[in-house]
Amino acid sequence: MTRSHPVSARADVYSRITSEIVAAIEAGTADWRMPWHHDGAATSRPHNVSSRKRYRGVNVLALWIAAEASGYCSGLWGTYRQWAALGAQVRKGEHGTKVVFWRQAALQADDDHDDGEAKRGRMFARTFTVFNLAQVEGYEPDPTATLPERERIAHAEAFVAALSIPVTEGAYDAHYRIDLDHIFMPNFSAFRDVSAQLGTLLHECGHATGAKHRLDRNFAERFKRDSLAIEEICAELTASFVLADLGIAHHPRADHAAYVASWLRVLKDDPRAIFTAASKAQAAAEWMHDQQPQTQELAA
Question: Which residues, in sequence order, are CB contacts of 282 under 8 Å at separation 6+?
Answer without folding.
Answer: 56, 57, 112, 241, 298
